[in-house]
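Q: What would this complex look like in 3D?
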Amino acid sequence: QKEVEQDPGPLSVPEGAIVSLNCTYSNSAFQYFMWYRQYSRKGPELLMYTYSSGNKEDGRFTAQVDKSSKYISLFIRDSQPSDSATYLCAMSLIQGAQKLVFGQGTRLTINP
Amino acid sequence: KAGVTQTPRYLIKTRGQQVTLSCSPISGHRSVSWYQQTPGQGLQFLFEYFSETQRNKGNFPGRFSGRQFSNSRSEMNVSTLELGDSALYLCASSLGGTAARSGNTIYFGEGSWLTVV
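A: Here is my prediction, written as structure tokens for the whole assembly.
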């Protein structure tokens, strides 16, 4: 069993829809949670960074962490075709640690 | 400012050969790490260097090695290439330093696509 599980999709939704992306994890020691977006043939770029449980909002993006359930989510409101990419969740034990454990990534397509 | 730069972007090697990939971190960043990305295994951590010292290592065989230079630039080497080493190799950099430092965002390069035939 992988340390971080993420549904690889693919996920296809119409423009303007609310998108929900999720990851579960098994290591309760993870403290820092991130969401990366990766466009085709590009490197991942950081979208959201959350410490411990709670919510964090940045524009159309909201990240949620539920440590009791070992479950994290990323919500995208008013989705745009430019949001079409692979979304990767990542976790670490230590703030700023470069050893991240990634989920498999979910391929998302927003249809105009 | 310039991002993380990786060279070469694409390369094809024959099984049994070795390969060296190069990474120039963002100016001022002292921590560099390497990841392997494949369709089957996803993104997996290879190793991290900080101030020319390996600080952390993933679960990869000894054929995978790396080093960091005094200017923070890093190289990774894979010897005796196998077909399964075909992957996107990503370099990432951050300011590094103490774990308690806030805003220690990790930035990724665009990667080096390695094909082993």
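A: To summarize the key features: The CA atoms of residues 77 and 105 of chain A lie 19 Å apart. The mean pLDDT of chain A is 92.
Q: Very helpful, thank you.
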